[in-house]
Design a protein that fits this description.
The protein is of the alpha/beta class. The chain is built from 13 helices and eight strands. Strand 3 and strand 4 form a beta hairpin.
C-alpha cells in the first residue's frame, strides 16, 4: 500500500511563507539561548556531583534541599525520579569552581538531617568491601586466623547482601536480611545490633570536576560541528555545492530550533542530549539525501525543464516515503517519551522535536536553499559568458 500517491503539491510556490515561519522559530530559539534562560548544563558539562537516592517513605524534598544547601558547595537541583511509589529522587549539586568528589559530604549531611545514627555498618550506604571489612574486624563467626582468611569467609556474605540491595533498591529492616541465605546467624545478630539501615539508599553516584566538564563541553561542541561539516562535504561531492549548502542550512536550522526547545523547557543538557542531537543530524540528512537524489534523477530525465517544477515533482514522489518513515519513527519515539521513564525522557524529547523539524526542513529549507543557490550560480555563469 502506498500513501499520498500521485500528489501534485506546489511546494516551491510557498517556500517564502515557510522560510518566514522558520525565521520566527530561529529568532525565538536564539533569543531563548542567548538573551533568555539559556541552556541548563548538567553535571556532565558544568561539573559537580549527582546522586540517585531511594527513600523508605515519600522523600521530604524541603529537608533534602535544606541539608544540602547548608553545605554551601554549589547550586542544588532536586528532581523526582522514576515512578512515584519508588520514592526516588535525583540530586545534583553543581560546583563549577571546585574540584573534588562531594558524595560523602552530601550523604553525611543527609544522614544528619534525617537523624541516621552512627554505626559500624551502614547497610544502605556502604559498599561490599566496607561491609566485608566491618565483618572482618568484628568477626561475629569467630573465624580467627589471618585477615585474608576472614576476608575470604565474609566476602560472599557482603556480595550477597549487596545483590539483594541492588535488586530491591533499599533494605528496610531486619526482615529483608532473612532473604539473604548466605548470612550466618551470628552475622545477622551483628547487623541487628551494630548496623543501621537509615532512611535512604544511594542507588548511583556520578562526579565530574569543572575541568573535565569544560573539556566535555568543548568535545561535544566539536562533535556537532564536525558532523555538520562532514555532511556538507559528503553532499557536496555526491551532488553539487548548492545542495551541500542547502543540507547544511537545514541541519543548522534543526539543531538551533531543538536547542531552543531545550532552553525554553529548561531541560538538562548532558551527554545523552548530545547523542540525541547527533542522531538528529544523521536522521535529518538521510531524509534530505533521499529528496536530493530524486531531484538529480529528475534532472537527468527532464533536461531543460524549470528547476522549481522538477523539485516539486521530486518532493511529491518522495512524499509518501517521507511521511511513512518519519511518522513511524515519531510514533516509536513518542512511546519512549511517554513510557520510557525519566532516564531517556530528554533524549526522546530531542528526537521528537528533531523529527518534526527535520522532516519539515528537508522540504522547506534544504530544497529552497539549494534552488536559490543553483539559480544564483547559473545567473553568475550567464553573466560571465555575456561579458566574454
Amino acid at each position: 500500500m502506498r500513501f499520498l500517491a500521485n500528489t501534485n503539491f506546489p511546494f516551491m510556490r510557498y517556500k517564502w511563507a515557510f522560510i518566514g515561519v522558520s525565521a520566527v522559530l530561529l529568532a525565538a530559539s536564539l533569543f531563548s539561548l542567548f538573551l533568555g534562560k539559556g541552556l541548563v548544563l548538567g553535571v556532565d558539562f558544568a561539573g559537580g556531583t549527582q546522586l540517585t537516592l531511594r527513600f523508605n517513605d515519600e522523600p521530604d524534598i524541603l529537608r533534602v534541599r535544606r541539608a544540602l544547601e547548608a553545605l554551601k558547595l554549589g547550586e542544588v537541583t532536586i528532581q523526582r525520579f522514576d515512578e512515584a511509589g519508588l520514592n526516588e529522587i535525583l540530586v545534583r549539586m553543581q560546583n563549577p569552581e571546585a574540584e573534588g568528589d562531594f558524595t560523602k559530604a552530601m550523604l553525611d549531611a543527609l544522614e544528619r538531617e534525617f537523624d541516621v545514627p552512627e554505626a559500624a555498618v551502614h547497610l544502605n550506604r556502604d559498599g561490599a568491601d566496607a561491609i566485608r571489612d566491618a565483618l572482618v574486624q568484628a568477626d561475629p563467626d569467630d573465624i580467627g586466623g589471618s585477615v585474608e582468611r576472614r576476608r575470604e569467609h565474609y566476602q560472599p556474605m557482603a556480595d550477597a547482601l549487596l545483590a539483594l540491595r541492588k535488586e530491591r533498591g533499599i533494605l528496610k529492616g531486619a526482615a529483608d536480611l532473612e532473604r539473604v541465605t548466605a548470612l550466618s546467624p551470628a552475622v545477622r545478630r551483628f547487623f541487628s545490633s551494630d548496623a543501621v539501615f537509615g532512611e535512604f539508599a544511594m542507588l548511583a553516584a556520578d562526579n565530574v570536576g569543572p575541568l573535565v566538564g569544560k573539556d566535555l563541553r568543548n568535545k561535544a561542541t566539536l562533535a556537532v560541528v564536525f558532523s555538520l561539516a562532514g555532511m556538507l562535504v559528503y553532499i557536496w561531492f555526491r551532488f553539487q555545492l548548492p545542495y551541500g549548502i542547502g543540507a547544511l542550512a537545514a541541519l543548522f536550522h534543526d539543531v538551533l530550533i531543538t536547542l531552543g526547545a531545550l532552553s525554553f523547557t529548561q531541560r538538562e543538557m548532558n551527554l545523552p542530549t548530545i547523542a540525541a542531537l547527533l542522531t538528529l543530524v544523521g536522521y535529518s540528512v538521510n531524509d534530505t539525501v533521499v529528496i536530493f537524489d530524486r531531484i538529480r534523477e529528475r534532472l537527468k530525465l527532464e533536461r531543460g525543464s524549470p528547476l522549481p517544477a522538477l523539485m516539486d515533482k521530486a518532493l511529491n514522489q518522495t512524499l509518501s516515503r517521507t511521511v511513512i518513515t518519519s511518522g513511524l519513527t515519531f510514533i516509536v519515539v513518542a512511546a519512549l517519551y511517554l513510557f520510557g521513564g525519566d532516564v531517556i525522557n530528554t533524549f526522546a524529547f530531542v528526537l521528537l522535536v528533531g523529527i518534526l523539524v527535520g522532516t519539515y526542513s528537508s522540504i522547506y529549507i534544504a530544497s529552497p536553499v539549494a534552488l536559490g543557490l543553483t539559480q544564483l550560480f547559473e545567473r553568475r555563469r550567464e553573466a560571465k559568458r555575456r561579458r566574454r
